[in-house]
């Protein structure tokens, strides 16, 4: 049984709550090696997503993802806004007009999301960005078999490991790169938010 | 947190309201999306010069909207790039038929949001990215250098060119010439506190300073012991001079900028030292700007910016400007 | 102490050197005694308008030297009144045959030193003492109210009158009219550190502010809990409104001043609130000034000044001015 | 045996040293209820006095006092500059062309100094200013019999008491008056510097 538009909406809502709960953590991570706004940027964006989901609930998974994309693009700002916006926009295109998403669709959506982030941000694995969380997540989802929930769960685990892997890295992209060697020793906030989002989506999908 | 604010969420909106009240002759503030537009926009046949970035750097950019400088500014939340919607809106409100030049400071967020806006806009749009901060090691594999103090000079000079009727290609070429001729570096004596964070952006002991800071309350390249004003000025000026490099016989504009919390008394003191150092090198300071023009909230510190001048730049620098923060000849 | 200085003893001298370098078109700095004089002084037949006071309030007063404002400024050491020698020298350098008006902020030190200078000077001299700070209880048995933000407005308006050729008696009368129509009050969120002292001038907990401060880093009338920007603006504006009193139908100039370390973002925010409060009272804000124009080194805080305008004051406010810190119409 | 010009010069030099030694104390007193510059103002002034005494040593007591007066007027600034300047100027006039000062001359000089300070500053006893130190000093000197040293010593003792008496006062003159009731509980810096100066002059005179 796949994820319907309603399931995707529920998952996005759950993700929004997780983002709000982790706002201060993400701010602290960004304060260490950036400009201390990542948590607030994501909170602002997902709060706007919640309110738009209330007023204009879309009726296909693709439309839900597109609403998320355009809302993030117009409210998050910073680097994360265009990057997450592009990710959700590409994911939306990738699932086409499917009424329900299975594991395969999730894997395709994640792959498209990663491609979008890389196209915009030009980061590669090891640059200490969200790409370090998203890249292993894409691989894990592709290898997982079956339901959307299974694919997302594998992706979330891999993303968490990917986020941890950013700790010792010296940043080569984003604001943290200005710090040079001083950026080592801290987790990348965008990698952390990617892992948080995927975990929330996976948990919600498991309940669907 | 010691701030004159009501609510971290509404800081920028409320500040823009005050700006509108203070300068209704010069500019019009639009909300949702937030854009500060010169009062007489669009100006027929004139290239629109548009910039923007996180708030907290006042008077940059809104204070430079007006005749002879910016057509519009897009203020993001504090220290956060504006969204592409804001930029698209700014373009639509100011394009007088001659297209728009986007002046983008080189930060991933600014670059990406302005880039998306350029893709979405219906006008003819060119973008230039300013990256004058010599504190950052440059390489094609990194985010590259930040845009800092040089932005103010670029906006003035290119704004004057647009005002006299230069077309989009000419404005873009001039902007690139300024970018290739300008270098900056800054230092912080204290951190600043972003309203939505509530605690200082970094810790500094009483005898420490950060050298090579940007303008977003981010730590610099290295923490060093504080020194005399002469040592501080040298620590900023030497890397700037070496980088371009500037050499004896050059004519320059020297911009001594305050980060927000440093008294003008100290800025003038530092400026005097910098003028002397340049004179000793045989570099002629032909124009100067001293004051807090691109800031990091209440941070104490300063930056120096050096622009190698040519005759056209001098003429455009001297051209009339009428904005909230820079005004002469009118 | 986090300051961009070389030596507390030479701060003012070095800062004046930097000021000279930055503004040689506008002003000439003399040392021993220290006087900042407009570049074209003495102007024949024009009343000389002279002010001065401790340094650390930049851009006051040196930043207001130039066409349409001050003829000369006498900078004392940081927060210390200048000596009578400086004032005597300033008078001698700027009297163009029409006498000199001394604009004195009401502090015992300033009053005594300017008074001695007036006794010693060879020119025809009149003095006005500005005392616009409503935070201080007035009485003939005390030192009386301090001169604060109103000073900037007085210098602009009376400076314009002198520039158009008003004689000494007319300038004096106008200055007295401004003094009787202007009221101010300030607050501090943080203290400042005088270079030769090296430690903050007072202690404030993280949730405290001083209400009713002056401009010399002295503690205010009372320490209270910090509040919202709206509460702060009311706490300053209400006593000002009651004092003159200002009432519905009045036309005013609203001056929202930063104490040095408060970001422009917050000043605009506070300014917007003040404009709204005045509109609610039926008071018409016809002119405004927003920015750090009379400061206390790096102190975070603000002051509000309200001047009741008449047609002549508006005309003189709008008249061209060309100084380092205020410039328009030229 | 009275004080010659050389003795007066020596006493002024001694006073200058005391002012330099107590600079920080006077700054701290002024920091509590003023603007933290009194110690620095006095140090600057008396340092200038020392250097002028080196280059142009005057040959009568009156001329020494006049040199001190004009130097303080042109270097101290603040309230203290004109007040101490006027005090020394009036003291100089009061001793006329005497070659040596006895106790009587000292008493007259102090009385003239006080009158000058009051004429300029309009303070009365109880306003929490240097007048609270100088007024009892004048009376004590007038009552003392004999030498300059004896008069100065009595004046210094009385000034010290007068300075102490300012602690509980609420200031009505000078910067401290802006504090209202908050000025109580601190000694007035100008009263303290008056007491210090008189003590230093008295000790030097005793050695002459
Ligand atoms: N070029 C890039 N490619 C991919 N991700 C990036 C890039 N630059 C920055 N990021 C991600 O964006 C995150 C920062 O987002 P945020 O703090 O919201 O924006 P900003 O850096 O503009 O303040 C970083 O932690 C990083 O994961
Ligand atoms: N009106 C006055 N009459 C007599 N003494 C005064 C008067 N006003 C101030 N003083 C004295 O001056 C002292 C302060 O001197 P100082 O700190 O050097 O100058 P300022 O107050 O201008 O900073 C006070 O402690 C007080 O003793
Ligand atoms: Mg960030
Ligand atoms: Mg940011
Ligand atoms: Mg003083
Ligand atoms: Mg004092």
TrEMBL record, chains A, D:
Name the SUPFAM superfamilies for this protein. Answer: DhaL-like
Pfam families assigned to the protein according to its UniProt record, in alphabetical order: Dak2
Q: Which InterPro entries match?
A: DhaK_L_YcgS (IPR012737), DhaL_dom (IPR004007), DhaL_dom_sf (IPR036117), Dihydroxyacetone_Kinase (IPR050861)
Domain DhaL, which positions?
6-203
Q: Does Transmembrane helix show up as a keyword for this record? A: no
Q: Does the keyword Kinase apply?
A: yes
Name of the protein described by the UniProt record: Dihydroxyacetone kinase subunit L
Its source organism is Lentzea pudingi
Automatic annotation (TrEMBL), chains B, C:
Its source organism is Lentzea pudingi
Q: Which gene encodes it?
A: dhaK
Source organism, top-level taxon = Bacteria
InterPro entries per the record? Answer: DhaK_1, DhaK_dom, Dihydroxyacetone_Kinase
Any one GO molecular function term:
kinase activity
UniProt domain DhaK: residue ranges: 7-328
Presence of the UniProt keyword Transferase in the record? yes
Q: Which UniProt keywords apply?
A: Kinase, Transferase
Which Pfam families does the record cross-reference, listed alphabetically?
Dak1
- What is the official name of this protein in its record? Dihydroxyacetone kinase subunit DhaK
> What Gene3D superfamilies does the record tag this protein with?
Dihydroxyacetone kinase, domain 1, Dihydroxyacetone kinase, domain 2
């Amino acid at each position: 049984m796949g994820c319907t538009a309603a399931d995707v909406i529920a998952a996005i809502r759950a993700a929004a709550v997780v983002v709000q709960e982790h706002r201060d953590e993400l701010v602290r991570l960004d304060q260490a090696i950036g400009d201390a706004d990542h948590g607030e940027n994501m909170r602002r964006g997902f709060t706007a997503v919640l309110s738009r989901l209330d007023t204009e609930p879309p009726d296909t998974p693709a439309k839900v993802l597109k609403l998320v994309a355009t809302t993030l693009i117009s409210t998050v700002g910073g680097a994360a806004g265009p990057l997450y916006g592009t990710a959700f926009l590409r994911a939306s295109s990738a699932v086409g007009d499917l009424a329900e998403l299975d594991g395969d669709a999730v894997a395709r959506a994640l792959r498209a999301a990663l491609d979008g982030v890389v196209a915009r941000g030009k980061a590669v694995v090891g640059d200490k960005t969200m790409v370090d969380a998203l890249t292993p997540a894409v691989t894990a989802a592709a290898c997982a078999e079956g339901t959307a929930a299974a694919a997302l769960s594998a992706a979330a685990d891999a993303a968490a490991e990917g986020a941890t892997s950013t700790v010792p890295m010296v940043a080569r992209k984003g604001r943290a790169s200005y710090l040079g060697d001083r950026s080592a020793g801290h987790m990348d906030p965008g990698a952390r938010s990617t892992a948080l989002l995927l975990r929330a989506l996976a948990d919600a999908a498991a309940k669907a | 947190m010691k701030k004159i604010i009501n609510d971290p969420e509404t800081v920028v909106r409320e500040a823009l309201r005050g700006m509108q009240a203070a300068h209704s002759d010069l500019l019009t503030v639009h909300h949702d999306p937030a854009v500060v537009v010169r009062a007489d926009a669009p100006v027929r046949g004139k290239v629109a010069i548009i910039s923007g970035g996180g708030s907290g750097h006042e008077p940059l950019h809104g204070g430079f909207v007006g005749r002879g400088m910016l057509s519009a500014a897009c203020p993001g939340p504090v220290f956060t790039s504006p969204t592409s919607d804001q930029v698209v809106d700014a373009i639509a409100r100011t394009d007088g038929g001659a297209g728009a030049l986007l002046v983008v400071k080189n930060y991933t967020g600014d670059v990406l949001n302005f880039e998306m806006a350029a893709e979405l806009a219906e006008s003819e749009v060119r973008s230039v990215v300013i990256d004058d901060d010599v504190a950052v090691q440059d390489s094609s594999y990194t985010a590259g250098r930040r845009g800092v103090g040089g932005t103010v000079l670029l906006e003035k000079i290119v704004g004057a060119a647009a005002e006299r009727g230069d077309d989009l290609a000419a404005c873009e070429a001039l902007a690139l010439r300024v970018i290739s001729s300008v270098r900056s570096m800054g230092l912080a004596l204290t951190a600043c506190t972003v309203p939505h964070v509530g605690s200082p952006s970094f810790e500094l002991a009483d005898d420490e300073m950060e050298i090579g800071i940007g303008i977003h309350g981010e730590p610099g390249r290295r923490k060093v012991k504080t020194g005399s004003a002469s040592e501080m000025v040298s620590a900023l000026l030497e890397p700037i001079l070496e980088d371009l490099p500037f050499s004896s016989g050059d004519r320059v504009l020297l911009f001594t900028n305050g980060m927000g919390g440093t008294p003008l008394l100290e800025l003038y003191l530092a400026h005097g030292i910098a003028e002397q150092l340049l004179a000793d090198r045989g570099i002629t300071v032909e124009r100067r700007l001293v004051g807090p023009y691109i800031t990091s909230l209440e941070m104490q510190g300063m930056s120096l910016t050096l622009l190698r001048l040519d005759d056209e730049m001098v003429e455009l620098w001297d051209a009339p400007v009428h904005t909230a923060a820079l005004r002469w000849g009118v």
